[in-house]
Amino acid sequence: MPLLEPKAGALRPRTGADHSPAADRVPEARAQGTPQPLRGDLERLLGADKVLTKVSDLVRYASDASPYRFIPQVVVLAEDVADVAAVLGYARENGRDVVFRAAGTSLNGQAQGEDILVDVRRHWAGVDVLAQGRQARIRPGTTVFRANAALAAHGRLLGPDPASAIACTVGGVVANNASGMTAGTTRNSYRTVASLTCVLPSGTVVDTADPEADEKLAHAEPELCAGLLALKAEIEAEPELVARIRAKHELKNTNGYRLDAFLDGTTPVEILRGLMVGSQGTLGFLAEFVFDTLPLHRHTSTGLFFFPSLSAAAAAVPRFNAAGAMSVELMDGNTLRASVSVSGVPQDWARLPKETTALLVEFRSPDDTTRAEREQAARELLAELELVAPVASVTNELTRDPATIASYWKARKAFVTAVGGSRPSGTTLITEDFAVPPSRLAEACEALLELQERHGFDAAVAGHAAHGNLHFLLAFDAADPGDVQRYAAFMDEFCRMTVQRFDGSLKAEHATGRNIAPFLQLEWGSEATELMWRVKRLLDPTGVLAPGVLLDRDPRAHLRGLKSIPAVEALADPCIECGFCEPTCPSEDLTTTPRQRIVLRREMTRQSPDSLVGENLLASYGYDAVDTCAGDSTCKLDCPVGIDTGALMKKLRHARHSPREERNAERTARHFAQVERSTRLAVAAADQLRRRLRGRRGDLGDRLLGAATGAARRVVRPDLVPEWLPEIPAPAAKRLPATSRQQAVAVYYPACVNRIFGDPDGYVGLSLPEAVVTVSARAGRPVWIPEDVTGTCCATIWHSKGYEAGNTLMANRMVEAAWRWTDGGELPLVVDASSCTLGIAEEVVPYLTPANRKLHDRLTVLDSLVWAARELLPHLAVERRVGSAVLHPTCSMRHLGDEAELREVAEACAEEVVVPLDAGCCAFAGDRGLLHQELTASATAREAAEVTTRSYDTYLSANRTCEIGLDHATGNRGYHSVLQELESATRPR
């Protein structure tokens, strides 16, 4: 055991004296995780590396975006179809059940089970673009966003466009027939999946695109084929039933199985293809899809139009549809007013009259001519409508401006952010959706608002008005029996109202799930519902797949498994467990995600202080959550309620520090000039050693350095002692370039990482400080490097590790020095590492004294990318360009918003510029990639695989440690700063 191993108890959640264990806590019997013989059986069947058994693994997979929580017995990381078939075979033989889970963004509990849960996200990503983009073969673990990114280069996209596209997977979208703002009933998965490959509960694999698929299925599953054809004949023999099925799917409807598959398909395989779409994991595993894609119309015109009433807005919807609008989104007055709590939403919306209703209308056109025609038609229509402008921010005009359009869509999505972020602590958030005939849209809105008010819920409604699809939110405390009863009463009345008054769909696009399964017969009637049960028994006779997810005869099943939401740290408490944060998280495929880190905190809080479950969760949490968090905080950017889980992990790191560690960290900050010089000398010594000791393979020195640091890590603590990497470059030059304060138009601050580390092995050219000084002078924008930069730092070293005293000391020293260097903010401060720019510009602020905050307010801190794009490029002549460049945009660039500048500068230097579709945070995070190499390896795996499929002339970024991480991941490709490339490209011949 390392000498300085932190005590896990320091991470124990703080609870009050009146704390009592939650009724839905994980019971003590589950403390050791997966029981035997299940654990041993699956490890022998699949291999131990594919079976997750710790109680912490079971807990983190137990929650999804729904209000439900079921603890699985085991989690399987299936890698291929053979694994899935093996698990299904084991379940059949042993009377067990299986649920498939991908992104966990389902809103009704479809991704939860109480027995074997199979992760079909981690190893199931991939997109193959076919037929010049007209089709795409997509694996189920691919996010919709990633699939569309691959198609965008071909001017195509998928039909389904759910709001969760950044996180939800294509497998989940097809399994739930999720649609979104524009898909309606014509662009959804049922209409656009050309073929699919599925694994039936029997283990039979069916590729519906195979010309011999029906013949093969008849041989493998004769009873299934006969049963499907018999059901088809039975349905078609009843004209009233046929008419009812057709009518139900004229509206958006994802409640129950697609019985119209029996009407649309002529063979068993064609019927099976239709049934699998929207089957919610209850009929088989969807292993692959071939989509027919749609044109990506890039010429967009958008308007946010305000009406005096719901009825006036609803009356305009069909007219906008007729004018060619791609989407028409409705927001009622309560929604508009509640949204002002979200940054970027006009504050004067708070004064909108209650009756005011807005429509967000968007037109997408293939070319400018069509766009102009649609805009003219829209303006003629607007002239005839009764629009209002109750507050100054309302313009009621169409716009082409991307920033304005983005602000409109942010406002549309702000309601979930506002309600989710401000709901009372301890309450769970439910997102409901339903559909009514568009002609009755206003009536349905008014009826819903009245129902919400009567049951004590916040009354507000929004939705896809073009399709009669409405959404609303409910917040209640699942730990309070009275609140659960209030929810139950609302659901009973809401479902009766939707079906009996409006003949609507209880689930327009979120799918049945556990939430609506008890109400399936209410909507479909006994005959159609019994047909669905027969479909289930025909395909899954042993009931192995997802019991209770789509079919359930228990009228109160939707009230079982509702999850309590115990209060945790204020930073994380607003979490609605939606999972939007997960795809951006560098540790997603290694340990835990932001959502899972919070889910685990909540389970610790549910437990009693002496619980063995709680102790085992704490024992795993240090590494799984705290140590392997990159702290990059990109989770905050994708979280609808703005939670910065990275900040929480830094606070927990601080909580684990002993007073001695804090004092040592502060001492390091105080004497950082000596530390900086010593570190550079250590890098130099290591570089000399590896160059002198080559050995037979040429890497003896690197292996010795790795062995030495590895031994030190085992003795001291892996989270304190860095591990040697062969890609660590030689030291930087002892002296920085000479510059003059006179005539300088900016202060150039070489980050400490660029004062310590030099360039990658094999790089030929000026060092980064030399390049910045040279190219700035060449552009007529000379910079000055202060003589006393040594010993200063952006403070990220201490901030990322949670050393508060050292962070505070260095943050204030840095700002005071910058104030002095820039003549009180008269000159901009140019920083040559994006993470350091972020640190000085934003992250130091909370740690500054009041006086230094005032100084900071007057500083202009520029990332070197912005400096190059805005100040240098316009004054430079490009003399030579390389053929191709691949970029690594860093997470700090995302925070700073200067990814576009990285591309702009790179495009001046290269004929072809490529940003990998799988580019993301490298997780090197200063030195975390040296402390936990496995974190960076996991975070960069997909990006590295994409980069190494071909050769590029140059590999560019703008952050030295990230460049080291990418070199390590890609086999030392020579990543370096784009400013060095700019200097080379503009160097006079």
Question: Keyphrases for this structure?
Answer:
989 residues; alpha/beta; seven-stranded antiparallel beta sheet; five-stranded antiparallel beta sheet; 39 helices; 26 strands; 43% helix; 12% strand
Sheet/helix structural class? alpha/beta
Percent of residues in helices comes to: 40-55%
- The assembly state of the depicted protein chains is single chain
Mean pLDDT: 94
CA radius of gyration: 30 Å
Please summarize the sheet with the most strands.
Answer: 7 strands, antiparallel
**Biggest sheet, spatial arrangement of strands:** 15-12-14-13-17-18-16
Written overview of the protein:
- The protein has 989 residues and is an alpha/beta fold.
- It is built from 39 helices and 26 strands.
- It has a seven-stranded antiparallel beta sheet with strand order 15-12-14-13-17-18-16, with helices on both faces.
- α38 (960-970) links the parallel β25 and β26 (976-977).
- α25 packs across α26 (700-715) and α35 runs parallel beside α39 (978-985).
- The longest helix has 21 residues, at 402-422.
- The protein is globular and about 90 Å long.
